[in-house]
Specification:
The protein is mainly beta. 0% of the residues lie in helices and 55% in strands. It has no helices and 30 strands. Keywords: Signal.
C-alpha cells in the first residue's frame, strides 16, 4: 500500500499553536488566492530548492504538474505530454535540476525540471511499471519501483540507474516492490516487500550485488521512505502490526526508535540542528507530526489535519509539511522552532 495522495485546492492561512521539542511553534498554511491560484486535484511531494518551495501532483485537468511558491503566488508547470497519474517519488536535486518520479495508469516515469528554464523533461525510463522513489547516489540518478512480467503480468520490485543517458537495471530479485531509496556513506540502500514473507527487506548494493542489511524478518509491513543524516545513520518510516514505526540503522544494526502514538508514518525529515521529525497519521486517524527528542517521540500538536504525507526542511530551521486538513482541503503547513 502506497502513500495517500492529497487534494490541493486554494491554500488558506491557519494559526495553529502548540508545544514542540524546541518550544512554542506555529503551524500556519502558506499561500493566498491569487491571479494564478493553485487548483490541483492532489499533490504528493514537497521540496525547498533555493528560495522556492516546490510541490508536485496532478492539476484540475488530471495532468501531472509541478508548482512553486514565489512572492505568495503559486506558479504551475504542466508536463509536456499531458501525462495523467500519481506523483509518488520525492524530489531530488542535482546540477540545477529537480527530479521526481510518477506513475501513470500504464507506466512509471522519471522527470527532470530545470528551474532556470522552467522546462520539464522525460528521462526516458521505458521499462518501469511504477516509480516510487528517486535519489542521487555518487552523482548518479537512481529510481525505484516495479516492472511487469510480460507473461505472468505480475509486478516485481526493481531499481535502475542512469549512466551516460541510458537506464540500467540493477537486477533486484525477491521483492514485490522497491518503495524507498537512500544513499549513505557511499552505498545505495533500498527497501521493499519481500515476496517470500510479505514483510519488508532492506538491502544494500555492494560489489557483490544486493546484500540483506538484517532488518528483523517481521519488523515492518511497509517502509515508505528512508533518509540519512549524512554521518552513517539511516532512518526508515512506515508501519508494523498496524502501528506507526520509525527504525534506525547504524553501525550495521537495526533498532526501533521507540513507540509513536500513530497509525503510520509517511514522512521523515531532519531539521537544521539534526532533530528528527516524522509525519503521518496518529492513533485517532488524524494527521500529526512528531519530533524525536532525548529518545522520545513528542507530539507537536498539529491540529485540524487528516494526514501528513510529506515533509522537507528548508532554511532557518523551517519544516514544510503537506497533507489534507479535516475540511478535505490539502494544505502546506510550516513549522518553526
Amino acid at each position: 500500500m502506497k502513500k495517500l495522495t492529497m487534494y490541493l485546492l486554494l491554500i488558506v492561512a491557519l494559526n495553529i499553536c502548540g508545544a514542540s521539542p524546541g518550544g512554542a511553534v506555529r503551524w500556519p498554511g502558506i499561500g493566498t488566492p491569487t491571479s494564478q491560484p493553485l487548483t490541483a486535484n492532489y499533490l504528493s511531494a514537497v521540496d525547498v530548492a533555493g528560495s522556492r518551495v516546490y510541490a508536485a501532483g496532478t492539476n484540475a485537468n488530471q495532468v501531472i504538474s509541478i508548482w512553486y511558491l514565489e512572492n505568495g503566488n503559486w506558479i504551475s508547470k504542466e508536463l509536456q505530454n499531458k501525462a495523467v497519474g500519481t506523483v509518488y517519488a520525492t524530489f531530488v536535486e542535482n546540477d540545477d535540476s529537480i527530479y521526481f518520479g510518477l506513475t501513470s495508469p500504464v507506466a512509471g516515469y522519471v522527470y527532470r525540471y530545470k528551474p532556470s528554464t522552467e522546462e520539464l523533461y522525460d528521462m526516458r525510463l521505458t521499462t518501469a511499471k511504477k516509480i516510487y522513489d528517486v535519489t542521487m547516489h555518487n552523482n548518479i540518478l537512481y529510481a525505484a519501483g516495479t516492472v511487469m512480467d510480460p507473461v505472468t503480468h505480475n509486478e516485481t520490485g526493481q531499481c535502475w540507474r542512469l549512466i551516460n543517458g541510458v537506464w540500467e537495471s540493477l537486477n533486484v530479485t525477491g521483492l514485490n516492490t522497491v518503495d524507498a531509496l537512500t544513499s549513505s556513506q557511499g552505498y545505495l540502500y533500498i527497501a521493499g516487500v519481500n515476496s517470500a514473507t510479505n514483510y519488508v527487506k532492506v538491502m544494500v548494493y555492494t560489489s557483490s550485488g544486493w546484500v540483506d542489511t538484517g532488518l528483523p524478518a517481521d519488523a515492518a509491513t511497509d517502509i515508505w521512505l528512508m533518509i540519512n543524516d549524512g554521518n552513517g545513520t539511516i532512518y526508515a518510516g512506515g508501519i508494523t502490526n498496524y502501528r506507526a514505526a520509525v527504525w534506525k540503522y547504524n553501525n550495521g544494526a537495526w533498532s526501533s526508535t521507540g513507540p509513536i502514538d500513530g497509525n503510520r508514518i509517511f514522512a521523515l525529515t531532519l531539521d537544521n540542528s539534526g532533530v528528527l521529525y516524522a509525519g503521518g497519521v496518529d492513533s485517532q486517524f488524524k494527521g500529526q507530526v512528531w519530533g524525536f527528542l532525548n529518545g522520545t517521540w513528542i507530539n507537536t500538536n498539529l491540529t485540524g489535519s487528516s494526514y501528513v504525507n510529506a515533509m522537507v526542511t528548508g532554511p532557518n530551521n523551517t519544516i514544510y509539511a503537506v497533507g489534507m486538513n479535516n475540511q478535505h482541503t490539502a494544505m502546506v503547513w510550516i513549522y518553526k522552532n
